TrEMBL record:
<protein>
    <submittedName>
        <fullName>SAM-dependent methyltransferase</fullName>
    </submittedName>
</protein>
<dbReference type="Pfam" id="PF13649">
    <property type="entry name" value="Methyltransf_25"/>
</dbReference>
<feature type="domain" description="Methyltransferase">
    <location>
        <begin position="53"/>
        <end position="148"/>
    </location>
</feature>
<dbReference type="InterPro" id="IPR029063">
    <property type="entry name" value="SAM-dependent_MTases_sf"/>
</dbReference>
<dbReference type="InterPro" id="IPR041698">
    <property type="entry name" value="Methyltransf_25"/>
</dbReference>
<keyword id="KW-0949">S-adenosyl-L-methionine</keyword>
<dbReference type="GO" id="GO:0008168">
    <property type="term" value="F:methyltransferase activity"/>
</dbReference>
<keyword id="KW-0489">Methyltransferase</keyword>
<dbReference type="GO" id="GO:0032259">
    <property type="term" value="P:methylation"/>
</dbReference>
<keyword id="KW-0808">Transferase</keyword>
Amino acid sequence: MTYAEPIPAPTNAFVPNRYGAMCTEVYDLDKPPGSLPDVDFYVQRLAGLDGPILEAGCGTGRLLIPLLEAGFEVEGFDRSGDMLASCARHCAGRGLSPALRQMSFQDFAYDHDFAAILVPAGTFTLLDDFAEALAVLKRFFDHLRPGGRLMIDLLPLGYLVNERPDIRTWTTPEGDVLRIEGRAVEIDLLRQRRVTHDRYERWRNGRLVESELEVMAFRIWGLKEFELALAAAGFGEISIGADHQPGRRPGRSSRILNFEARRPVQGRG
Ligand SMILES: C[S@@+](CC[C@H](N)C(=O)[O-])C[C@H]1O[C@@H](n2cnc3c(N)ncnc32)[C@H](O)[C@@H]1O
């Protein structure tokens, strides 16, 4: 059997999960460094850890910065130049200079290993292809030292079928109104994949002066499915919590699932 040559993507095709300039500006207004309840959870969970921590998809430094300020040795990478630039600015303003690199989950590489790798805020669901996500779990495994910990927070399966539009506004320090209107445009139950169109707008004196479209593609995991995926990548000691509450088990109303696993001391070769 022969296969047709792949059709080249048109040059103006939308790149999913881009996290461009307006998305970054809104992220910073909505979730500045130190915001969200996961910060205390990570500080407590990582207490006493000996060795460097990697935040994969560190974005604006929302979590990375408070971890640095709590005395942890943290570095980060992200694919978005806008998110990383914001992170670097926030760090410089606080006298911090962590190693930040522009890389993607699919091809990140370090010449040293880590005592822990963190993927908070549902970011892992932005890997919208099953095989690619499994390969990334293996890449995490290979970058952890024996006994190293992987901590990943996932949106629960219900998010796959959420059709409620996301409409919110923020006011910038300059007085512009930033508005997002996000809508699900595709829900594929077979591939557990969801695509949304997030339209960002900047309004000034009642006029639309700028807009940006972010196409967001997610793959949402079942709880047991992700546990099996972690095991398939070689991880052991897998535990699952919920909502960053110590000891809380996942339940019907959980908003975020907190997976933790270890690279065994005697690991996959
Ligand atoms: C929801 S934000 C989370 C940022 C930060 N970790 C936090 O907790 O606030 C997701 C981040 O993942 C990054 N990202 C998305 N896809 C990526 C990929 N394939 N490789 C690396 N980073 C990616 C985005 O640029 C964005 O900064």
